[in-house]
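Inverse folding, one chain.
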């Protein structure tokens, strides 16, 4: 299921300036992860929440490389909470977009635990898919997540969940 074009670039102007933007392939994932960690520290995230968010984003980046054409793009910004978006340029999930499993999936040779793990570690996750790739948006509050309202335009956690489309998406 697609809610609009995945190449919309209006996120920076709607949510604030980008703090990190990076293209990556398999050899660059570790470098981008280190750069993201430094940005997150600078944005006030630390301790276990820092580790959790970096791991969640790493899972999305690894999925982009493994399942989405061998490369991806990462964008990170802060508004009231931290937002990291990972995009790939694969063929997408198809229609309908599979739901993120509610319970731990069984590991397989093809993977299958990345989005579930990211969902467990980030405060929220949303997945959008189209014929030109998959976009995973993860958020993490610097404070208690209950104190931070969702960004305007966000729907429920999980791919294709109910709620308004992302800003810039055709609805």
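Residues assigned per position:
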């Amino acid at each position: 299921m697609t809610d609009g074009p995945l190449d919309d670039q209006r996120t920076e102007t709607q949510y604030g300036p980008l703090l990190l933007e990076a293209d990556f392939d398999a050899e660059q994932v570790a470098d981008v992860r280190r750069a993201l960690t430094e940005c997150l520290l600078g944005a006030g995230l630390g301790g276990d929440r820092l580790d959790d968010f970096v791991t969640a984003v790493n899972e999305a980046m690894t999925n982009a490389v493994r399942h989405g054409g061998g490369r991806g793009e990462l964008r990170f910004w802060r508004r009231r909470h931290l937002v990291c978006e990972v995009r790939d340029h694969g063929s997408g999930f198809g229609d309908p977009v599979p739901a993120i499993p509610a319970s731990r999936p069984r590991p397989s040779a093809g993977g299958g635990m990345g989005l579930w793990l990211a969902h467990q570690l980030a405060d929220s996750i949303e997945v959008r898919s189209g014929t030109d790739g998959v976009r995973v948006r993860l958020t993490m509050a610097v404070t208690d997540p209950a104190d931070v309202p969702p960004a305007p335009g966000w729907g429920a956690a999980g791919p294709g969940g109910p709620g308004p489309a992302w800003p810039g998406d055709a609805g």
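The chain has four helices and five strands. The first strand starts at residue 18 and ends at 25.
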